[in-house]
Sequence to fold (356 residues):
Amino acid sequence: MKNYGIIEKYKKYLPVGQATPIITLNEGNTPLVFASYLSKLAGENFEIYLKCEGANPTGSFKDRGMTLAISKACEEKATAVICASTGNTSASAAAYSARGGIKCIVLIPSGAIALGKLSQALIHGAEVLAISGNFDTALELAKEISLKYPVTLVNSLNPFRIEGQKTGSFEICDYLGDAPDFQIMPVGNAGNITAYWKGYKEYKTGGLSKKLPSMLGFQAEGACPIVKNKPIKDPKTIATAIQIGNPASWKSALEARDESNGLIDIVTDNQILEAYKILAQKEGIFAEPASAASIAGLLKLIKNGYFRKINTTNKCKIVCILTGHGLKDPERAIKSVKKPKLLRPNIKTILKEIGY
Ligand SMILES: *Cc1c(COP(=O)(O)O)cnc(C)c1O
Fold:
């Protein structure tokens, strides 16, 4: 039996050869779900789709880049990899390193990573070190160590991460038959917006799609260096996956925005939480708060009439990237809704409670 992930499927577009061992968990091929509630909200000329990246093996899109980064590290006979992480990168690096048989070192900002993600890095046997500082500091340290010692950096500064992640746009084009008109996504370290834009351009150049989408990125209000046009010293948001004050791929995010005639804007934590619940309760999809930033952004743009200027002969297609699974951050879910009531084990009491 052969395993089949994004490298096997999109080999032609990826920097792999005969000598590359393919370290895969069969990532990719994630559902692109038509969003009926959100589409109705947007209006009859719109079709909204949700790319559910939480369906990847470790529960986030990071697996697309990690399968390639770890495969290349193994090809180059690396014995160890290192990353700084707000959580999902470490979960993914730990899992793929375990599979590839190499050591994984993880630097996390102490107290700022969701429980599910931490549990993954730990159970896969990574060496997890909590730093009393934020993500940006952890990344600086990881970079420095990788420059001075024989450990490979697997943050999205590693170009193989971007190469792997661009397969997300290939899948969207394959599924829709062309690129969408708009793509909405959260922006943290800005690797993913860079990757998706690269993917869309390559597919168009290769003749596999005709259009290019406008790239619409959203940062959290308390962590919006790109929107503010300056690094944020102490970024703060409940969406920990995008709590980043000095994005590594800042410049390429601006290129994606400008070349695609898109935008990068902010959403507040309250808007993120509202979108988080709408997604779970109206579409049946449990995504983590950072992913809900896509939907918060969509709702914001619908409200302020951004899409009204769109001239639609065909239906306007919007794809929102749901970057990670809701189970990554169970504490946030429990905090966001009413706790279950405690009742006596008595049928009358229960019936009364449910209104019968
Ligand atoms: C990493 C991550 C992001 C941010 O992606 P960048 O490439 O850093 O911009 C958003 N959401 C989730 C769930 C993530 O894990």
The pocket of pyridoxal-5'-phosphate is lined by residues 60, 62, 88, 156, 186-192, 241-242, 288, 290-291, 323-324 (CB under 6 Å).
